[in-house]
Protein: Putative dioxygenase
Organism: Amycolatopsis japonica
Amino acid sequence: MTALNTQVEVRKITGRIGAQVLGVDPAKELDAATVAFVTEALHEHKALVFRDVNLDDAGQQRFAGHFGGLTKAHPTVPSVDGEPAILPVDSEQGRANQWHTDVTFVLNPPKASTLRSLVVPPYGGETLIANSAAAYRDLPEPLRAFADTLRAEHTNDYDYAKAPETLDDAERERREVFVSQKFRTVHPVVRVHPVTGERGLYIGGFAQRIIGLSKGESRDILRLLQSYVTRPENVVRVSWEPNQLVLFDNRITQHYAVDNYDDLPRRLNRVTVAGDVPVGIDGVPSESLEGDASHYSPVA
């Protein structure tokens, strides 16, 4: 890709995913050429890191809004007070560290996610982001052909963090909020990116069952496919710093918050950009089975 000028640069962090953007200030109003440049970089590198940014809540929303309309914070979890589009990602409210793509249990999950650092532990607390298109390309041809035919049910109603009998009162209350409205949606296991045409494995933690297979068979298939997503070659490890912003393409990545910072506080704010309904290689779109998420993100 071509830089806008000599002051703008995109530096790859790994060979398959991740880049740092220099010379673009997310706190400023971006012109159309800069938005197009960042969008092209996002499609190529899947996850972009901006360091030493001077953003508040309004600035983060303004930056995310350059890439489309914003969703509400979450279909069930409360937002930051007075900011309906901002979700607090706070270690004091739980540490559900699991590989996932944001909000895939609804019909049209977010197009992109932004995370902004507010409180950073002195060590640990990284976010891992995986390239699911590279994972798809890594599949042996017979397995790739098999994955092309599959569809999976995604839901928020499962033991996503801990077994129910291990939850304390606060954790049990948070889980009740998370599943206060139940969602079930069938997505293609292989999603076609609506802009680049890349194929990516569209699974992650909310994918609980392969349509037409038993729970046991589904677990085995999903575990096998997921192992390609999380190969080290396909993952970038983002170490959080103060005043840092990360933008990632939620249509073709998964991410994981590493719980390796003891009992220290860690706080990020998340703002997500509304997305379209996923489509498989056969052109068939996703299908909602339970739960209306139009209050969270209207379907275009």
The radius of gyration is 18 Å. The chain has six helices and 16 strands. The CA atoms of residues 138 and 228 lie 7 Å apart.
